Amino acid sequence: MCSSQTDKEEAKTNEWSIRLATAWDIPALEVLIPLSVRTLQAPYYSKAQMEAALGPVFGVDRQLIRDGTYFVAETASTIVGCGGWSRRDSVYGSDMARPKGEDRPLDPSREPARIRAFFIHPDWACRGIGRAILLRCEREIMTAGFRRAVMVATMAGEPLYSRHSYREDERFDIVMKNGLKLPAVRMSKSFD
What we know:
Elements: H1 6-10, E1 17-20, H2 26-40, H3 47-53, H4 62-67, E2 70-75, E3 78-86, E4 113-120, H5 129-143, E5 148-153, H6 158-163, E6 167-175, E7 181-190
Parallel strand pairs: 4-5
Antiparallel strand pairs: 1-2, 2-3, 3-4, 5-7, 6-7
């Protein structure tokens, strides 16, 4: 999706900065996520697939924010990207798709961390925001003692993760309401 110019643009981080997300960011994330999905995922998924996925698959997971493992990229106090990692069991989805309560914590000595919920504002795509958030997540994952990370990538996100040494483990469909299916890729990376 991004051209070879991406590497040049990635150096321009002075246009935006990354910080931990807070509960105050949730309203802005609830606007950003559908905009990102409906624009950047459109070449890969039908309108019906995207609309069915908004909410349960593509949405805010407040647990990531409470855990301090979710980041936003902002410029002039406007959020232009987000993404994070988790030390909990869920691999994808918003908190509205999960039963009440917290996910089970993972054991870093034997279980992989999760890369979760990356969304970029369409006007800010291909500027290195996803890459910068991913690298920040990886540093924190290793600091927390995890030796591996897994994710469920969308078709739009797969090229970014492949460029950063995540390998495909499995292609599968996320089954949604009305029998709709969302193609996805389970990917992983070792830090040893």
